[in-house]
Amino acid sequence: MNFLHKTLALLSLGALVTTGSAHAAQLYLVSKIVGKVNTRADSGKETSLGQADWLPANTRIFTRARSGVEALAPGFSLRFGEDTAFSIGDRNLQLHKGAMLLRALGSGKQLALEGPEASVWLQGEGSCLLEVATNGGFKVIGLTGKPAFALAEGTKGRVTHPGELLFVKPLDGGWSDPVNIHLFKFVPSTFLLRGFPNKLSYQEEVTRSVQTQTDLITKTFRAVVGDARGTDSFEVKVSPDTTTGSTKPSASDSSVEETESGEDSSATALPSVPGPPLQFHTPADRVPTLKEVFGEQAKPSAPPFPGKLLNP
Predict the structure, then answer these.
(1) Do residues 140 and 165 make contact, with C-beta atoms less than 8 angstroms apart?
(2) Given pLDDT bands bounded at 50, 70 and 90, which one contains residue 20?
(3) pLDDT tens by residue, 254-292
(4) Could you tell me if 238 and 277 are in contact, meaning their C-beta atoms sit under 8 angstroms apart?
(5) What is the pLDDT of residue 290?
(6) Model pTM?
(7) Taking the C-alpha atoms of 249, 251, 253 and 255 in order, what is their torsion angle to the nearest 10 degrees?
(8) Helix locations, 17-155, DSSP H
(9) Is the dihedral of CA 3, 6, 12, 13 positive or negative?
(10) What is the C-alpha to C-alpha distance for residues 249 and 253, in angstroms, rounded to an integer?
């Protein structure tokens, strides 16, 4: 059975279950492979994964450095990044380590995700990044649209807006306080976006989110969000000032050196952001182009799949 036939089978499956949970008879079809991706059976035998393969159930799948895999499921597109390990369970997708990009296509279904010490259910429409934190919870960053994450099956999810970063605390600890990141600085450094071929429609969708956020930013800070090692806090580090222009940080910015969520640092709390050191933004700055965000001219989109279920 070739890739087209398998895609049609996946579309037929999605048509049978148009609402409710994505648990029932969930199948994942490999649509893209970057580098080398292997599966490992309980016996220890390793097998290479290829395009148009079905992701095997109850088998650990892992990627190496600068490699990854993208898979399609009814109502969802999933992209697993480098140095990531995951498996397909009977009722959920299990992310053991690493990071992934998720796109919810507005099908009305929920996708169950389980980490070492946390579980979430994805729904809605939009895309986001999700990473396993050291404490066993999740780190979530909104990219486009309004994907929502629920902490219990069948409940209403919390919407993740573009540029918003949240931690899902382990052991049913709930959500961390939200912080905002500068997508213009973050997107070019993300392998999950730059390391894979992207359809033109999705590149434009990401670029619109970057442009919209850039228009709304009035002030940024030289800080990065690190890992979440404890159950109730995450690392925030302030980067040294490397700017050489006339713009200088305010007193409240330069007075803060390092803090963690839940601790007092100074009279003015420092919003925390992951990624490279940030520059101060002024409304006069022009918005970035698609080429500036993705680092190259956009390529024409590939022909869409039959039907609408698996198309953005």
Answers:
(1) yes
(2) very low
(3) 222 223 333 333 333 444 444 443 333 334 445 577 777
(4) no
(5) 73
(6) 0.73
(7) 130
(8) none
(9) negative
(10) 6
Question: How deeply is 52 buried, as exposed, middle or buried, from its count of CB atoms within 10 A (0-12, 13-18, 19+)?
Answer: middle
- Which residues neighbour 80 within 8 Å (Cβ) at sequence distance 6 or greater? 61, 63, 68, 69, 70, 71, 86, 98, 99, 100
How crowded is residue 230: how many other Cβ atoms within 10 Å of its Cβ? 15
How many residues in total does the chain contain?
Answer: 312
- 3-state helix, strand, coil split of the chain in percent (to 5) is 15, 30, 50
Residue 246: which residues within 8 A CB-CB, separation 6 or more?
none
SS3 173: coil
Could you tell me if 126 and 107 are in contact, meaning their C-beta atoms sit under 8 angstroms apart? no
CA-to-CA dists, residue 242 to 246, 271, 274, angstroms: 12, 19, 17
pLDDT classification of 214: cutoffs 50, 70, 90: confident
Which domains does the chain show, CATH number per domain? 21-211 (2.60.120.1440)
Separation between Cα atoms, residue 229 and residue 252, nearest integer Å: 27
254-266 in b/e form (b: 16+ CB < 10 A) is eebeebbbeeeee
Cβ atoms of 257 and 238 within 8 Å: the answer is yes
Query: Which one of 42-51, 71-80, 216-225 scores highest in mean pLDDT?
Result: 71-80
305 CB-contact burial (10 Å; exposed 0-12 / middle 13-18 / buried 19+): middle
CA distance 67 to 56: 18
Angle at 184 between CA 246 and CA 222, to 5 degrees: 45
DSSP of 167-210, one letter per residue? EE-TTT--BPPPEE--HHHHGGG-HHHHSS---HHHHHHHHHHH
Band (197; pLDDT cuts 50, 70, 90): very high
Q: Model confidence over 120-151: pLDDT tens digits? A: 999 999 999 999 999 999 999 999 999 999 99
Q: Residue 187 has what DSSP assignment?
A: G
Structure tokens at 199: 């359809």
Whether 30 contacts 51, CB under 8 Å: yes
